[in-house]
Amino acid sequence: MEFIKGRGAQHNSHNQFLKHRHEILDDFLNYCHDHSEKLDDNKTSYLEIYPKTILNKVKSPDIGLVYSMNPYQGCEHGCIYCYARNSHEYWGYSAGLDFERKILFKANAAKLLEKKLSSKQWKPQNIMLSGNTDCYQPIEKKLEITRDILKVFLKFKHPVSIITKNSLILRDLDLLQELSVNNLVRVNISITSLSEETRRFVEPRTTTIKKRLEVVRILAENNIPVNVMMAPIIPSINSHEILPLVKKVSELGASSVGYTIVRLNGAIGEIFLKWVHKTFPDRAEKILNQIRDCHGGNLNDSRYGIRMKGEGKIAEQVKLQFDIAKKKFLKKKNIPSLDFSKFDRLQSNQLSLF
Q1: I need a labelling partner for 226 at 20 to 30 A (CA). Which of 135, 197, 246, 257 fits?
Q2: Bridge partners of residue 45, in order along the sequence
Q3: How large is the C-alpha radius of gyration of the chain?
């Protein structure tokens, strides 16, 4: 089977919520398929959905968020390790290739947010844009849903945290600057490696490393607080890059750096397993065994407080490297707290009259 270029997952895993499994057998292809035609054109399709609410209550105690919102379901970036893959099964799709090629979008997201913030019962709380899939994935360039959402946050003077690995965020620099003046925004840029080769394998349709580093620099130069997330750390793939990466982003203006250890929960275990044997056949077992070492012999650990950082010798080595990197390169830096006191429901309603 040839490598599907531009994609992370190399197959569609079975959806746990579906009773029947759909498989195409090689003998069937050899017998029936006209090889002059393409069986799969590898194109991405987009489908509008119509949610009634847009904010999701975050109940996980080790994430540190109150709410998240996701204008998109599924993500064309195709990061092989993405924990959000499992959520695509709730829509009847696979966590594998479907997650990357069937993107659902919520065109009414900004209106739903405005309705929520206008409610007399709403009190300003930490909202992450997005907690699941990337709010600046490729289709955002055309749809501008995330930009409309930021306009609502600015209108209400409501704080927002953003996490992305796409340089498209710089399109909205004007809005981010206005939010930053009132300490209403915090940006998290995901950078898992300084190696472009690693990026192409692990995160095939994401912005290049060079552009992501440029995003850190430009945001910092415009006084927009930047935290860099080296998430996840995958042993024997990017675990050797901790010190040089923290040094680099610190020089570019990042105020802090965070990390997580890869964990392959749900269908992601099967997807990653097939991908790693196909991508790194010479060290696949080493990678998998080191991941297991971080999670008590398993590819995943769901225990709160432990699942994000792992445990065991390799996890301890990773933590030690980060502690050293922070002391050496980020000792006098910190991210300011968001200001929830400026939230103004009345003023925003008055502006809407004009």
Answers
A1: 197
A2: 102
A3: 21
Cα angle 160, 87, 89; round to 5: 155
Q: Show the tokens assigned to 62.
A: 């080790």
Q: How far apart are CA 51 and CA 230, in angstroms?
A: 32
What is the DSSP-derived secondary structure letter of residue 177? Answer: H
Q: What is the pLDDT of residues 36-51, one digit of tens each?
A: 334 456 789 999 999 9
Taking the CA atoms of 40, 46, 49 and 53 in sequence, report the sign of the dihedral they define: positive
- pTM confidence score: 0.88
Torsion, CA 106, CA 111, CA 112, CA 113, rounded to 10: 110
Classify residue 65 as exposed, middle or buried by CB count within 10 Å of its CB (0-12, 13-18, 19+).
middle
Helix, strand, coil percentages, rounded to 5, for the chain: 40, 10, 45
- Rounded to the nearest angstrom, the gap between the alpha carbon of residue 255 and the centroid of all alpha carbons in its chain is 20
Assess whether the previous peptide bond of 118 is cis (omega < 30° from 0).
no
What is the reported pLDDT for 22? 47
Query: What phi-psi label fits residue 314: left (phi over 0), alpha (psi between -120 and 50 degrees) or beta?
Result: alpha
